[in-house]
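TICKET: design request
STATUS: open
ATTACHED STRUCTURE:
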């Protein structure tokens, strides 16, 4: 059995097969499982990357029927049930440097996830980083913290205002959480750290182009509650569609120009490119977002040995698409593993049934919104539930303990200890001598 992708769906499927007499190979381009729901806290300096990621080999260390390979799936021969992979990381520093090889499979689970979508604008990623990987998060952290440093050195009031203007494109859960964290940085964390600027004077704009209010997938009452809380923190939510992004700001569909040196992307995702491999090699059908249309048992039509789960799968459940969230991916991973177990025993498996466990979005300190069925909560209680649920979903116990301690210290001190500018500044190219001294 081969699993492509060590995210929520792929890792869950591998773990569910730990007691079966099967050989499990988990393939991923990274050597770690990333807890993406907390990635925005890395981007805003509350947590470090190692606290939201767990090495796959460590997670599966005691599972004797599982092995982990670092590499990329680049092709598929369905008739021979062979997966073509390229071993080694992007630098060719580990495994078999850049060498291609084949892996045979009896069952294949494809869980390659999603990536940022800029709706065809190829130059926007450089101007507005998204939030799907550790590199995205640290680049975003650099961009946010550098803006305050640049504003401190800027004598021109207009230029300083542009550095202190933050535009977040996309009013979904990621955009809301980013906006709330940014407001806390400006109002609390950095409040007394500068001498020439007042971080609390920053403008934080949250632009949602597809709906009148933020959190468009939530109920109107919850969306309004979230919006009111954002306004209390100093965030300005707006219904506005962005048509252009450059180094100096954004242009709206209305023609308005917003001068901003920091633009952050939270507006959309699309499936990874492996969906196209399935389309070309096994005739899979893709939707407009590049997701694979699967049967009720999560397999590719005509290929019961190939499962597609998580963000790459377009799953219809009771007339509605299953959302691309972590609990859904984990349920799909569990279902795929159970289907394989039943096949080994000659049993039939009923169609996949999605259980909606609700939606959560944190807005700021002591404030969150939650919807579970008809239950709608916002404020302190929702925030406490958000903390507990996210801690429980972290893969390793060590990470749960560290994150809990970090959150507790942050709550008491208002400090964010991971405020490091680690990326090379795109605003100023610095040359170094061989000795490492700036010239």
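STATUS: resolved
RESOLUTION: sequence designed for all positions
ATTACHED SEQUENCE:
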């Amino acid at each position: 059995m081969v699993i492509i992708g060590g995210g929520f769906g792929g890792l869950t499927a591998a773990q569910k097969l730990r007691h079966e007499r099967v050989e499990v190979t988990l393939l991923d381009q990274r050597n770690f499982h990333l807890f993406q729901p907390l990635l925005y806290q890395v981007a805003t300096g509350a947590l470090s990357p190692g606290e939201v990621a767990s090495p796959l080999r460590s997670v599966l260390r005691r599972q004797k029927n599982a092995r982990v390979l670092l590499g990329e799936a680049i092709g598929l021969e369905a008739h021979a049930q062979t997966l073509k992979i390229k071993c080694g990381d992007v630098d060719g520093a580990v495994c078999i440097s850049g060498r291609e090889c084949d892996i045979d499979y009896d069952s294949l689970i494809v869980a390659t996830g999603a990536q940022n979508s800029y709706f065809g604008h190829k130059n926007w990623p450089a101007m507005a980083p998204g939030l799907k990987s550790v590199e995205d998060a640290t680049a975003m952290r650099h961009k946010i913290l550098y803006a305050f440093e640049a504003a401190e050195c800027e004598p021109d009031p207009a230029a300083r205002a542009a550095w202190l203007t933050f535009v977040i494109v996309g009013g979904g859960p990621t955009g809301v959480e980013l906006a709330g964290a940014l407001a806390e940085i400006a109002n609390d964390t950095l409040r007394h750290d500068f001498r020439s600027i007042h971080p609390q004077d920053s403008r934080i704009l949250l632009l949602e182009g597809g709906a009148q209010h933020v959190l468009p997938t939530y109920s109107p009452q919850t969306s309004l509650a979230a919006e009111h809380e954002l306004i209390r923190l100093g965030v300005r939510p707006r219904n506005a569609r962005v048509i252009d992004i450059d180094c100096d700001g954004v242009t709206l569909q209305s023609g308005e120009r917003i001068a901003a040196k920091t633009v952050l992307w939270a507006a959309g995702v699309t499936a990874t490119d492996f969906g196209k491999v399935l389309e070309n090699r096994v005739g899979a059908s893709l939707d407009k977002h590049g997701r694979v249309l699967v049967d009720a048992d999560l397999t590719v039509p005509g290929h019961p040995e190939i499962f597609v789960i998580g963000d790459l799968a377009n799953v219809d459940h009771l007339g509605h698409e299953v959302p691309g969230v972590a609990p859904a991916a984990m349920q799909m991973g569990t279902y795929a593993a159970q289907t394989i177990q039943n096949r080994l025993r000659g049993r039939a498996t009923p169609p996949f049934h999605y259980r909606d466990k609700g939606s959560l979005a944190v807005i700021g300190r002591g404030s969150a919104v939650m919807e579970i069925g008809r239950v709608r909560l916002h404020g302190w209680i929702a925030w406490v539930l958000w903390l507990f649920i996210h801690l429980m979903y972290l893969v390793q116990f060590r990470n749960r303990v560290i994150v809990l301690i970090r959150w507790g210290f942050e709550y008491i001190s208002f400090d964010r200890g991971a405020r490091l500018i680690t990326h090379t500044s795109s605003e100023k190219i610095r040359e170094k001598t061989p000795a490492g001294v700036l010239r």
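CLOSING REMARK: The mean pLDDT is 91. The domain at 2-116+269-344 is CATH 3.50.50.60 (FAD/NAD(P)-binding domain).
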